[in-house]
């Protein structure tokens, strides 16, 4: 079992390093944007990105999840069939959807409630969605083949291209916020070009009708589910815009992005986790292995939540040559960061719970679970934003992820029962609560004393985890297994 865990850890490390480097490079644009653009201008871009994220789900309509499932087992058709059929399907549908967006440009712009002068951003957005949708299946093929290094390299090239072009357009050519979407479009095109060898290798001009039917049957429930999950992630932006203004949206999303470090941890784990549990589902000790993974994922995630929450306000305000990690006009939203970090941790937990649904092909339940989270998210945003502003939006996100985690757990336990180590997991969350309680009830204001005090809280939290929340003998054994060559 531990050799399998080492395999997952190795893939996670490869995805993780590249994801961390790539996303961090992309994150460098946040200080740049918040020190250059007004919150209202930054808010406009966030509105476009929110709808881009939702529409990508529509373009793919669950074919990504279905591809992972059927390409892993190859129960129907050969390897090229399992690549070409979903790829052709996504390509044809994305052409149709893009044409619709272009012809409905004026109506879409009016519904977005952004200034008319930005109507051309619709074209950039449609191109981004088209290119990203057509790169989804090839990228998944790299993951399924455990070509983590190539996958990671392509992602880094994408982000570096975006970063360099954005800086060039704004600093050298004097472009405005349109540079952000244009650069994303060009970077997406570069990614698709890099994926051409993979596409050519596994593509054939045949459409496997039976396989397509099974792909649709399995994947289509992931369309409303994917939509619902994406609604949870981005619907707060348009609701916040309607109930407040673009300036508030800009402040909220800039601080939301400070949760990047927790997001990176969850994303790099997810990249490795999905192929891992599909390939190891038939192992005799699979369930025991999955249980351990949840415990240690929660453990590492908790340390990140507490550590980042304690120090992110100080880091965000550090001045270098008159500029800070977060522009001063955006500091009002810093207190939402701990809520966002905790929401990302819960998000990672429900990703782990999803394994049983994939393995047992119970995707029919996914739309109901995700839909419940989406409906609750919308309701919570509408209820809490008028009273709490951006804090209400952050809390709504946390509540939604929690409800979805509970839903995934209930379904998985019904069809693929796993004895999770809830005693240890509950102890971990108690530790998070105690750390937060000590910090927020503290009267320490002096900057130097505050840093020392925060270091003390983090140290005490880690010691609590080591001596109370987990099995020390097991950690020692895992450490020895990791160090051993095999």
List keywords for this structure.
two-stranded antiparallel ribbon; mainly alpha; 486 residues; 2 strands
Quick summary of this structure?
The protein has 486 residues and is an all-alpha fold. It contains 23 helices and two strands.
Q: What is the tally of beta strands?
A: 2
Biggest sheet, spatial arrangement of strands: 1-2
**Shape field:** globular
Unreliable residue runs: none
Which range best describes the helical content: under 10%, 10-25%, 25-40%, 40-55%, 55-70% or over 70%? over 70%
Classification by helices and strands: mainly alpha
* CA radius of gyration: 23 Å
Portion of residues in beta strands equals under 5%
Mean pLDDT: 86
Largest beta-sheet details: 2 strands, antiparallel
N- to C-terminal distance: 11 Å
- Give the helix tally: 23
The SSE order reads HHHHHHHHHHHHHHHHEEHHHHHHH
Report on this model:
The chain has 486 residues and is mainly α. The protein has 23 helices and 2 strands. A two-stranded antiparallel sheet has the order 1-2. Strand 1 (319-320) and strand 2 form a beta hairpin. The longest helix has 31 residues, at 286-316.
Topology:
Layout: H1 2-27, H2 29-36, H3 39-60, H4 63-73, H5 79-103, H6 105-112, H7 121-144, H8 148-172, H9 178-194, H10 196-202, H11 209-219, H12 222-234, H13 236-243, H14 246-256, H15 260-280, H16 286-316, E1 319-320, E2 323-324, H17 337-353, H18 355-359, H19 366-388, H20 390-415, H21 422-440, H22 447-469, H23 472-483
Antiparallel strand pairs: 1-2
């Amino acid at each position: 079992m531990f050799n399998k865990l080492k395999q997952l850890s190795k893939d996670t490390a490869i995805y993780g390093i590249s994801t961390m480097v790539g996303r961090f490079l992309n994150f460098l644009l946040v200080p740049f944007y918040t020190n250059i653009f007004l919150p209202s201008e930054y808010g406009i871009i966030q509105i476009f990105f929110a709808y881009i994220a939702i529409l990508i789900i529509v373009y793919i309509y669950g074919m990504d999840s279905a591809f992972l499932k059927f390409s892993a087992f190859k129960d129907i058709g050969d390897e090229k069939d399992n690549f070409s059929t979903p790829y052709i399907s996504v390509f044809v549908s994305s052409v149709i959807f893009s044409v619709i967006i272009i012809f409905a440009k004026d109506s879409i712009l009016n519904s977005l409630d952004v200034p008319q002068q930005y109507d051309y951003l619709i074209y950039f957005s449609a191109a981004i969605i088209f290119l990203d949708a057509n790169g989804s299946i090839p990228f998944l093929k790299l993951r399924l083949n455990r070509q983590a290094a190539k996958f990671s390299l392509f992602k880094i090239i994408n982000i570096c291209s975006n970063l360099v072009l954005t800086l060039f357009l704004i600093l050298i050519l004097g472009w405005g916020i349109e540079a952000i979407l244009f650069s994303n479009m060009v970077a997406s095109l570069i990614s698709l070009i890099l994926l051409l060898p993979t596409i050519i290798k596994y593509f054939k001009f045949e459409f496997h009708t039976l396989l397509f039917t099974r792909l649709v049957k399995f994947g289509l429930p992931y369309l409303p589910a994917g939509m619902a999950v994406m609604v949870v992630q981005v619907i707060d932006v348009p609701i916040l815009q309607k109930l407040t203004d673009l300036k508030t949206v800009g402040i909220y999303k800039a601080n939301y992005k400070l949760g990047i470090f927790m997001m990176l941890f969850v994303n790099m784990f997810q990249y490795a986790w999905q192929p891992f549990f599909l390939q190891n589902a038939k192992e005799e000790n699979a369930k025991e292995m999955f249980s351990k993974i949840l415990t240690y994922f929660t453990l590492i995630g908790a340390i990140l939540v507490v550590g980042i929450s304690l120090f992110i306000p100080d880091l965000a305000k550090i001045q270098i040559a008159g500029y800070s990690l977060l522009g001063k006009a955006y500091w009002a939203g810093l207190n939402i960061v701990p809520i966002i970090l905790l929401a990302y941790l819960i998000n990672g937990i429900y990703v782990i719970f999803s394994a049983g649904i994939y393995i047992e092909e119970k995707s029919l339940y996914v739309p109901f679970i995700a839909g419940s989270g989406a409906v609750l998210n919308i309701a919570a945003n509408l209820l809490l934003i008028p009273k709490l502003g951006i804090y209400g939006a952050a809390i709504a996100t946390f509540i939604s992820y929690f409800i979805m985690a509970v839903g995934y757990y209930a379904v998985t336990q019904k069809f693929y029962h796993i004895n999770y180590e809830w005693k240890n997991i509950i102890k971990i969350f108690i530790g998070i609560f105690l750390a937060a309680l000590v910090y927020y009830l503290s009267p320490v204001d002096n900057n130097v004393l505050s840093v020392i005090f925060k270091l003390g809280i983090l140290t005490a939290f880690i010691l609590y985890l080591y001596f109370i929340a987990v099995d020390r003998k097991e950690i020692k054994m895992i450490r020895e297994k990791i160090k051993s060559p095999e």
